[in-house]
Amino acid sequence: MTVSLGGEDVAFPFSTLAMRRVISDTVGGQPVVFSQAGTASVLDQSEIAGSRDVAATCVYKPEVGGRYLTFAWEDGAFVNRETGSRWSVLGPATAGPLQGKQRTPVVHANHFWFAWAAFKPATRVVR
Questions:
Q1: How far apart are CA 92 and CA 95, in angstroms?
Q2: In this structure, which of 41, 52, 55, 118 has its CB flanked by the most CB atoms within 10 Å?
Q3: For the whole prediction, is pTM greater than 0.85?
Q4: Strand 67-68 to strand 71-74: parallel, antiparallel, or no bridges (unpaired)?
Q5: At 94, is the pLDDT very low, low, confident or very high (cuts 50, 70, 90)?
C-alpha cells in the first residue's frame, strides 16, 4: 500500500500491515493512521466466502473534531485509546463516545511494487 503526501512517498508492505494491523506514521509532515481489515479474494475460490483473506487497507488522518487520537487493534476492532470508541475500517466511529464521528480519509493506493518502484524509486518502505 502506498501514500504520497507533501512530496514524500511511502510504502507499507501488506506483510507489515498484517502483523501490526494499525500503524501510526507521518508522511510528508502529516500524521496518518494506516489500518488493515480482512477482505476475501474474489478470484481465489468459486465462492467468495471460502476465499483467502487478501486484506484491504485504509488511511486516515488521526484528527477528529480538532483532537488527535491514537488507534489500536483491540478485541477484534479498531479502537481509539483516548475514548475507547470503536471505528469501522470505512472511517466512522460505530460505538462509544465518538459514535457517528468520521475520520478524514487520505488518498492511497494498492499497487504492484515493481510498477510503483519503477516511477518512485526513492520511496521509503516501512517494515
A1: 9
A2: 55
A3: no
A4: unpaired
A5: very high
